[in-house]
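# nightly structure sweep
# worker-07 picked up a monomer target from the shared queue
# config: single-sequence mode, recycle default, output format = structure tokens
# input follows
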Amino acid sequence: MAGSQTKLKPGVVTGKDYKTLVDACKAGGYALPAVNQTSSATVNATLEAAAKYKSDIIIQVSNGGAGFIAGQRFPDSNLGKVLGAVALARHVHTLAEHYGICVVLHTDHANKKLVPWVEGILDHSEAHFRETGKPLFSSHMLDLSEESLEFNLETSTRILERMAPMGVGLEIELGITGGEEDGIGGAFDDRADNSRLYTQPADVLQAYDKLSPLGMFSVAASFGNVHGVYQPGNVHLRPEILRNSQALVQERHHTGRNPLNLVFHGGSGSEKEKIAEALGYGVFKMNIDTDTQFAFAQPIGRYVQEHGRAFQYQLDPDDGKPYKNLYDPRKWIRQSELGMVERLGEALNDLGSVGKSLAQ
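# output follows
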């Protein structure tokens, strides 16, 4: 466990408890993986990994992931993506505390056209807050990095003002993280404008000036990181970008070290030494999706190869042997869960969070 650090009740953390957890990560020089979800199976694997390694964790869902959870044929696609996120949140709220770890619940990239999705979730979160005193989610992300800085900060201000009374945090993106994640962004282009691939400290300072008086917020800063996995040499990480942003805010506002809560997007496939350097500059959250998708998928492929006949016949055509115990979805989905647990164990070790859960 986390030694002399403040202990928190296990389960979904929001408000002051969420801030306590983020502060502990930064003070301890470690971060939590933020794991994208597509089903109850991926959620359960994430909770299992966190419990196994005694680490707190961030569970997040994208607009596309929420739609998949609601069902691809849900009659109203936009409503389905709101309700899919709500359903995931309720699932996590119900189970998380029993796994004995703290969970941050988060929604991932929402660009300009997806702001109404976040607002729809907030409608449900406000109702949940009135009933229980807790919001559904710990935080939400607005990715308005493709818009002007003025629009980005104005919209972020409006949303944070709505969320702050519930203790919900906001994640914003400054600078463009290359590649595509679940329909947001596009193909990686290493010829892109340098000022857009690398977050500018002056922009971060503007965000801090505008948002820090309102409530808790974090910055997904771009320092050459890319969504997806690319050949070595194509991605050039520059964690010193993070250091420079922290230094500017600290100088202008006379704060302590690392005043910004920073997020590392595009963590899959990143060099471990660059991850370690980024942790020293106030990164408390690293997104991981591509690697966990593969870790979930690979065992299914291996299982089908090993038991090919079970996926062609209910009864063996030669001896009549039933294959139900092999094609039962619980058998092969469980293999996927175990693959994801193993990959998350690697991530938790890379980020230094093993054995540091604040849950008591």
